[in-house]
């Protein structure tokens, strides 16, 4: 099934709705769960009833159905008590390290996992404010999963069964702060402000055979100001989501609503499929020409991320956001 | 006023109570706010009514008052959408760098801020499970503040006004994973599992003159298995909490319930006042004797953290936790 959270005046967690497979229609989930958080905290008991509602919605028999407007959507889970962003496509890191002669002290078999903030997830169409172009505003197109409660000490196979939803995000990145924060080595703060999510999260079964080994085997289409930027595929992730969740859960439990991002989607065939972030394209240009040719984002630019399923329809809806100057007190 | 959250069978956010100044009695906050989260999201409107209840409780005139049992307490805010732990006592880092000949690439004026998980805050008396003594289990006694909504772009002075509560935490640390994760440079995961909080959080006015420049000018008493370990003072923090919140809010807003830890309390007079973590004492031993003499935590050990106010009474109540082996499925 497909789920989204609509803006409301009164709650920070939005109003949970079930969205039809073609993203055209929706129906209120409130009789079963008022918010996505409420659903995730009691998934096994409540999801089957929403699944039935989803069936009726697709069949055109759901009472109270209305047109789905992604402009009214918050992030599917509007805030989370734990958001961790991986860097699970080693190809991306390899390009960056070669271009800039960096060495990340990786340990074989251990994924890069970056703890992040969960209090300010953004909807798919809201203007994104940032303070200064000198901060080198970049994007990272990523897949992400959302879990229910994950016990401490789970195996990768057990962890995979706690993945309840899959979605799409733009991990907005301020490269002007990244090197300083990476060198300090304690984590990313000013380099990684609020994250933007697709309007819809889907259960893994919606992906059909494109959900394999805890990876999304679909292209991530990235468009900058209406022009193609890249369409790398999620299948080349070096760790499955289940493996990374198990690493996280080694000595902690993960609360329902845990969000894990894949890291910027990146493929070995990057010359053909392009990239899902500016930093990677700039690194490729640096390797090829000795210097980057592509600029970081300027105010007024727009970015679109979308993923089509096997039948060509949009799986998660699109992220389509304009980047604008921050005005204090606005 | 002083606030706590009691365990309940049904909610993950607990049940908010007002606790008397001497920590002996409590009264339900539910007529004003059912949970700490609800209060923080609407602080200005609701806090004055709880302040009045607190006055009545201290005067012995509050209806429905009952004995306060810290063993029934969750963390004052049982979970948060954003927890960041600073390392704001540079003295601690200096000792570590000298002992182990490390170099952290700090930028003058910029605090070390470590994004962390907010989904698994622990109460002050619950046994703490961890998988293996080989993980080198350590503790860090810290002060922490909790904010209401902080807008993007605030100044340090404005940020300080968003500090609504102060508390105490034990930032449990697994040193066996720390070097690997620090070298990788993307943040701390297995090195920093769940965090333990004192039973009570207090409004800054409760600290009287001990709350100055966004710092807590009180000793943090640390006891290991009933024996004195250290009592460093919070006044030597190199950044005030307001300054660090402003750094965080440079390009993001911070949601109500943002928790910011101070980092392990550490003083230049460490030979007299001791330390608030094993790693620092071990580093001092390494500097003095060429090798550490103090062991990391073994299963069965207990740790107590407490802070006395000017009149000698406990400000936040005590963290008093036993460390035990993790048993899967227990």
UniProtKB/TrEMBL annotation, chains A, B:
<dbReference type="GO" id="GO:0016787">
    <property type="term" value="F:hydrolase activity"/>
</dbReference>
<feature type="domain" description="Fumarylacetoacetase-like C-terminal">
    <location>
        <begin position="87"/>
        <end position="309"/>
    </location>
</feature>
<protein>
    <submittedName>
        <fullName>Fumarylacetoacetate hydrolase family protein</fullName>
    </submittedName>
</protein>
<dbReference type="Pfam" id="PF18288">
    <property type="entry name" value="FAA_hydro_N_2"/>
</dbReference>
<dbReference type="InterPro" id="IPR036663">
    <property type="entry name" value="Fumarylacetoacetase_C_sf"/>
</dbReference>
<feature type="domain" description="Fumarylacetoacetase N-terminal">
    <location>
        <begin position="1"/>
        <end position="79"/>
    </location>
</feature>
<keyword id="KW-0378">Hydrolase</keyword>
<dbReference type="InterPro" id="IPR011234">
    <property type="entry name" value="Fumarylacetoacetase-like_C"/>
</dbReference>
<dbReference type="InterPro" id="IPR041072">
    <property type="entry name" value="FAA_hydro_N"/>
</dbReference>
<dbReference type="Pfam" id="PF01557">
    <property type="entry name" value="FAA_hydrolase"/>
</dbReference>
């Amino acid at each position: 099934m497909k789920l989204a959270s609509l803006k409301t005046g009164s709650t920070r967690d939005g109003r949970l709705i079930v969205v039809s497979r073609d993203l055209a229609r929706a129906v209120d989930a409130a009789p079963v769960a008022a918010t996505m958080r409420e659903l995730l905290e009691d998934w096994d008991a409540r999801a089957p009833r929403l699944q039935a509602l989803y069936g009726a919605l697709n069949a055109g028999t759901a009472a109270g159905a209305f047109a789905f407007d992604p402009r009214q959507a918050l992030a599917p889970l509007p805030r989370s008590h734990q958001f961790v962003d991986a860097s699970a496509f080693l190809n991306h890191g390899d390009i960056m390290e070669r271009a800039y002669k960096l060495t990340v002290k990786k340990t074989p078999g251990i994924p890069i996992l970056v703890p992040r903030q969960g209090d300010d997830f953004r909807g798919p169409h809201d203007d994104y404010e940032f303070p200064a172009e000198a901060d080198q505003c970049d994007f990272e197109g990523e897949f992400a999963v959302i879990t229910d409660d994950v016990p401490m000490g789970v195996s990768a196979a057990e962890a995979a069964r706690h993945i309840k939803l899959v979605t799409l995000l733009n991990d907005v990145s301020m490269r002007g702060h990244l090197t300083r924060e990476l060198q300090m080595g304690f984590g990313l703060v000013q380099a990684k402000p609020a994250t933007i999510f697709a309007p819809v999260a889907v259960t893994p079964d919606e992906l059909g055979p494109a959900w394999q080994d805890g990876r999304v085997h679909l292209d991530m289409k990235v468009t900058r100001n209406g022009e193609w930027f890249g369409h790398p595929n999620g299948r080349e992730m070096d760790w499955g989501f289940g493996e990374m969740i198990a690493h996280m859960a080694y000595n902690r439990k993960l609360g329902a609503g845990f969000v894990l991002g894949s890291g910027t989607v990146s493929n070995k065939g990057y010359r053909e499929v392009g990239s899902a972030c500016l930093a990677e394209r700039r690194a490729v240009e640096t390797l090829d020409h000795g210097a980057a040719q592509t600029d970081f984002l300027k105010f007024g630019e727009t970015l679109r991320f979308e993923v089509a399923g096997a039948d060509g329809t949009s799986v998660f809806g699109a992220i389509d956001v304009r980047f604008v100057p921050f005005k204090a007190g606005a």
